[in-house]
Design brief:
Helices cover 49% and strands 11% of the residues of chain A. Chain A is of the alpha+beta class and 218 residues long. In chain A, strand 3 and strand 4 form a beta hairpin. In chain B, helix 1 packs parallel to helix 8, helix 4 runs antiparallel to helix 5 and helix 4 packs parallel to helix 6. Classes of the chains: A alpha+beta (218), B alpha+beta (204).
Amino acid sequence: MSLRVYIDFKSPYAFIAKDPTWALEEAFGIEIDWYPLTLNIGSYLGTAKTDDRGEVVENNRSQRQWAAVKYAYMDARRYARLRGLWLAGTRKIWDSSIAAIGLLWVKQQDRAALRRYMDIVFERFWKRELDIEDVEVVRSVLLEAGATVSGFDEYLNGEGRRYHAALQDEILDAGLFGVPTYVIDGEMYFGREHLPRVRWHLAGRPGSLPDVAYEGAP
Amino acid sequence: MTALFEEHLTVCIDAANLSGFLALAPTLALIEASGVAVGWLPLTTGLDRLSARQPGLAADDPLAAYKARRAAAREAWAKRELERDCERLGISVELGERHFDARCAGMGLMFLNARGGDVPGYLERVYQCAYVDGKNVSTIATIATLLGDADFEAYVESGGYEELESLQRRLLDSGVFSSPAYVVNGEVFQGRQHLPLLGSLLAA
C-alpha cells in the first residue's frame, strides 16, 4: 500500500501535520512519498502584508477572506501550542517554490536528510527565522540536513524548476488543491482531520469509516 | 442586549444542513460526558455571505485558468466528502446532497430557546425529516409540525426573521461563520473535528 503526502512549507496546517504524518511510517511499516504542493494562496484568500507591529500595510482581502485567514491562524496556533510548536503569523504570502524544489532535491538523496530538511524548514520558517525565498538560505539548510548541495543551483534553475512546475499541473489535474493531502491507492484525504481515516485505510479499512478529528488533545 | 454565549458551552448549529446532522450525535455525547451547561444557537450564515467581494473577475484575471481548475478540484473533493458523510449517516447521496433555506428551522430553535424547550430533540426531528424522510424543512408549516406548537407561525410573523437576522450578524461579528461551531469561554471552534479537544477542555 503506498501513501503519498502533499505539503507546502508556508501552510501552518501542513506544519502541524508533519510529525503525526511521519509517525505513520513506523506505525504501518511504510515509506511515505512526499511531494510539494505549492499553493497560490492569493488566488483564493487574497493578499495582504503587515509591518513589524502586525499592522496591515497592504490589503487585497475581502471581509470573507480576512475572517477565514484570521480564524485559520488562530486555530492552527492553538494546536501548535498543544504540540509544543511555535507558530508566528506570517507577514506576507511567501513564494515557497525554492524550498519545495529543495524538498524534491533532498528526496532523491537520503531519507534521514529529507526528514531533517523538513524539520528545519518548517520549524524555522514558522519562527520567522528562515527566508524560504532565499536560495542561499535553502542551500545552507540542505547542507545542514546532510544533503549534498553540489549541483543544486543548476537543478533549481533547470530540471528541478521544470519538474516542480509540471508537478503542480499534474497535482491540480489529479484533483488535489490543498495541504496536507494524503493519497492512498488513489483515495484522497484532505486535511489533518482525516488522519483517523488515513490510519483506518492503511490498516485495511476495518469496520466502519471513522469520523474526522483533530488529534493532539492533552 | 443579552450576551450571546451565556452558558459554559454554546453550540451554534445549522438546523437544516448536513454538517449539523453529522455533528449532532457526537456533540450530544460530549455534552453528556462533560455535564456542562449548554446553550444552542441557530447558525444559518455561511462564510459565503460575509462579503460579495470575490478575488479577481475571470475576464481580466491572469489567474482565471488556475482558479477554475482549483475550483473544479474542490468540487470533486466536496462530492467525495459528501459520499463519505452519507456513508457515515447511512443515507443515500441523493438525500444528503439536498439543500434547504435554513431560516425556518433556525427560527424553530430560537422559538424553543424562548420557551425552554428540548433543542436536541427538535434538531433530531428536523434532521430526520430532511435527510432520512426526504421532506422539505424550509417551510413554516413543516417546522410548526416538528415543534408540535401552532404558536410558531405567530412567532415567525411577529419579528422572527428580523430576530434571526440580527443574531446572525452578531454571530458573524463574534467570528462564528461555520456550522457546527462551539464556543467555550469566548473561544470559537468551527467544525466537529474539534470534539476531542473540546472534550479535554470541558473535562478540565
